[in-house]
Write a structure and sequence with these properties.
Largest sheet: 7 strands, mixed
Oligomer: single chain
CATH class of the largest domain: Alpha Beta
Number of strands: 11
Shape: globular
Order of helices and strands: HHEHEHEEHEHEEEEHEE
Number of helices: 7
C-alpha cells in the first residue's frame, strides 16, 4: 500500500507539471462562471489547474477528486486563494454533496474515467441533486487518438518537455482494448529521476450517448461544441462527428 501511494504521489507531481501549460479550456469555464452568480463545483479537479484560475478570477469554488495525492498537490497550489477555493476527497459515483451549486464542471475527461455506463448514470444523477435551478453543467469528453488515427494504436511516442524549470520525459502508448475502451501507458520521469509507470483506462462516450445520459438525469438545453468555443455550441446533429475532444453544456 505504501509503495502504491508513493507511485500515485509521484504521478500527481508529474501530472501537475505535464498539464500546467494546457489553458485552452479555461475561457469556456470562465465564460460559464460569469453567466451564473453562485458557487462553482469542479469534479475531477486533479492538481488544481482550473481551480487556480477560478480563484485568481475571484470565484468561490469547491474542487473534488478521488485521488488524495492529487489533492495534496492541489492544496499547495491553491494556497493563495484558500479563502475562496476549497478541496474535498469525494466520489460522485457513491452519493451527492449536500451543498448546492450554480455551475458544475467535469474537466479534462474526468467523465471518461467512469468505465461502466451505470457508473455514468449514478454520477450524473448525483450531480443533478447538488445543482441549483437554473444552473449549468459542462462535460469535457475525450476522443481516443487510436480511434481517430488507428495507425497510432500500440505505438510508443517519445515526449520531452520543459515546464517551470523541470525537464519531463515521457514514453506514451495508447491502445483500444475494445471499440470504446482505451488503455494509456505513460512511463515518465522528472529531471532525469528514476522512471515510473502510470496506466489509465478511459471509456469513449459517443456524443449521442452522453446526450441521452444527461437527458435521463434531468438536464435540458444540451449543446455540443468542440475546441471549448461556447459561441459554436449547438444541438448535436447526425452529421456531426468529433475530430478530437468535445464538450457538452447542459442546463438545469
Amino acid at each position: 500500500m505504501q509503495i502504491r501511494h508513493s507511485a500515485e504521489r509521484q504521478y500527481a507531481e508529474f501530472h501537475s507539471l505535464f498539464a500546467a501549460d494546457f489553458r485552452k479550456d479555461l475561457s469556456l469555464y470562465l465564460d460559464l462562471a460569469a453567466k451564473f452568480p453562485g458557487p462553482i463545483l469542479e469534479v475531477g479537479c486533479a492538481t488544481g489547474r482550473v481551480l487556480a484560475r477560478l480563484g485568481e478570477a475571484g470565484y468561490e469554488a469547491l474542487g473534488v477528486d478521488v485521488s488524495r495525492p492529487m489533492l495534496e498537490v492541489a492544496r499547495r497550489r491553491l494556497e493563495p486563494w484558500q479563502d475562496r477555493v476549497r478541496l474535498a476527497d469525494f466520489d460522485f459515483r457513491n452519493s451527492a454533496l449536500f451543498e448546492k451549486f450554480d455551475v458544475v464542471f467535469a474537466t479534462l475527461y474526468a467523465f471518461n474515467q467512469l468505465i461502466d455506463v451505470e457508473e455514468q448514470r449514478l454520477f450524473l444523477r448525483h450531480i443533478t441533486r447538488c445543482m441549483k435551478s437554473p444552473g449549468v453543467l459542462a462535460l469535457d469528453c475525450f476522443c481516443p487518438l487510436p480511434m481517430l488515427r488507428p495507425e497510432t494504436s500500440g505505438q510508443w511516442r517519445e515526449i520531452e518537455r520543459t515546464v517551470k524549470g523541470h525537464v519531463l520525459t515521457v514514453r506514451d502508448k495508447r491502445e483500444m482494448l475494445t471499440p470504446l475502451l482505451e488503455r494509456r501507458t505513460q512511463v515518465f520521469s522528472i529531471d532525469g529521476g528514476p522512471p515510473a509507470e502510470h496506466v489509465a483506462h478511459r471509456r469513449y462516450v459517443p456524443p449521442q450517448q452522453a446526450e441521452q445520459l444527461l437527458a435521463e438525469a434531468g438536464f435540458e438545453n444540451i449543446r455540443y461544441l468542440q475546441d471549448y468555443d461556447l459561441s459554436n455550441a449547438k444541438p448535436y446533429g447526425e452529421g456531426d462527428r468529433p475530430t478530437g475532444p468535445y464538450q457538452l453544456v447542459a442546463e438545469r
